[in-house]
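This part of the workshop introduces the protein records we will be handling. A record pairs a protein's sequence with a compact description of its fold. Comparing a sequence with its tokens is the quickest way to learn the format. The record below serves as our worked example for the rest of this section:
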Amino acid sequence: PYMHLVETNTAVASACLGVNQCATEFPGPTGLAGAFNRTLWHAKGEVISNEMRAFNNIGWHRGTGDAPKSLIGLTGFGPNINIERDPRFGRNSELPGEDPLLSGVYATQYVRGCQEGDDPRYLKMVSGLKHYDAYSVENDRAGRSFNISMFDMWDTYLAQYRIGFVDGRAGATMCSYASINGVPSCANDYILNKVVRGLWNRTDVVVGTDCGAIDNMIHANHYAKDDLAAVAAAINGGADMELGDVYFSPLASGGTNSLARAIAQGLTTAAKVTTAARRVIANRFRLGQFDPLEGQLYTRLGAEQINSTAHQGINLDAALQSIVLLKNDGLLPLKTGKTIAVIGPHAVSTRDLLEDYKGDELCFDKTENCVPTIGAMITQYNAGGTTQVVKGVDMDSQNTTDIPAALAAARAADVVVLCIGDGNNEEHEGQDRVNISLPGVQALFAQEVLALGKPVVVVLVNGGAVAIDGLIAGPNAIVEAFCPSMRGAEALSMLLFGDANRWGKLPVTMYPADYVSQVDMYNFDMSLAPGRTYRYYTGPTLFPFGFGLSYTSFELVCTQSPQAFECNVKNTGPLAGDEVVMVYHRASEAIRRSVSHPVPLTKLVDFERISLSVGETGALTFTITPEYLVLTDESGNEVVYAGVHYFDITRGHGSVTTFSITAPAYAVVRNNTV
């Protein structure tokens, strides 16, 4: 059997082949997006496709306990590029942040790394974007319908998918549980047929329904009166295959034979089913599966690829670039040989270092014991010193029994590394957070630690951003690690001790705790006050989108020509390091006053990451295109308005260089009306 449903958001979902030979497990996409590194994202795709081909070539299976029926195919569902619209969403750990351009470019590079290789005749694998579209709520996710304007659809919810399908050429997608304006995504002719296959001219894209989506039409959102109406709605609306094998499948395969019966009753047609089947089979032709396997490059990939030394190196590099330095008064980098207390629930966590949708198996013994903890890795890196590791408090309970032991360790230490945040019990598929504060008694515990007056590094590990309103002034340093994964504790230790200086930037806004009391979780209007994401939020932040520090300093000097912004970045500090330069577009007040739709406060239009040794200067060129000036109008069209447009070039902190461009006339860049 050929299994189409194989998750590939951070790893190829699979059983382990042996000790230290489980699928390479990358950092969570939020942190990975914070690397702002196209090359890294492409490299991740290459690793995933190497391993997926290898698993397929040796006839390997998923780790779901049903090996004969779960042989790994060559269709991988990932990346998941829904927007981090609300910090409470239970699946934020799976997503590459809150910005459509960043998410779309991430998807493009990842997908191209997955699908393209050294043999131009064939796809290396097929990548499926998920969850298409407007999937941003877990509580009652199957039964709710969300009212979304054409402006918001094209400005926020479709934008990153257009980039992934058009520029990345993703060959598949998983339609979501969400209903948009009363129509389930998996029966939505507008987003599937009119947009993907019409406006974006991707008639080859295979649409698979999210597991249970057809059943939801009958029993949850009640879009269809029965199983025949549901399967007909899915096929007529643009779905090609059902992931779950119930309603589309014949009785002999354990299904209900609903699709055949729907054809017989005239609810859909055999021609539409044939078109869907052709799309599914055509992708397998593009993979070379119906050609002689001899001489195909990708069929040579074997078990040696799985978590290979090369793949481990890329994974460590990814982890190093996925962690963000938010505050440092000079305590970091730490000196070795000291007495260090590593305390807090994430000092000893394993599974909670990974995002919600990890691979099937992390360790060959089917436990999580092979995942290095932060406490263990800091102990290893603190050469010649003494390291005490004490949890102190649970992730989410009212138990204070172990606090005295943790405080005792902190009193005896030269430096305290306080590892706090949340985990998979607090946010995951099927469960949104109620608030974004630290769960349990972690905030109380943190204040008791700070009251000792010791040098403290706060390390945050979380999926969606956590609110640490009362914990910003006290610590000497704050680090956001998101879900750093299998190599995360090692990467964090390297960064803390100065063995690396490759920090990322925030791909999300860190809001204060009361933000969630000001916005309705189920309202998808992005600009409704106080607004969502850095593009529309008008209130105070704990740390803004794009923010991130380094151990070294940089000088940024930019000039403008008619064709480009030219920037020189010089490392003026004491250490080699990486920097990210971002270009943001701001429409002038005259343009804002002239239109009747929302206009972003600012929006990311380009970015580059650069590595520089001490004293080195590197050149970056940002080529100006009409895309830089685009705004979305009330009908969803992407247009350039006549008038002055400003461009802010920044490192996420420090000085900002601003240029302006005057557009002489109104122009439509993309007409999205269908």
The longest strand covers residues 577-587. The chain is about 25% helix and 20% strand. The chain has a mean pLDDT of 97.
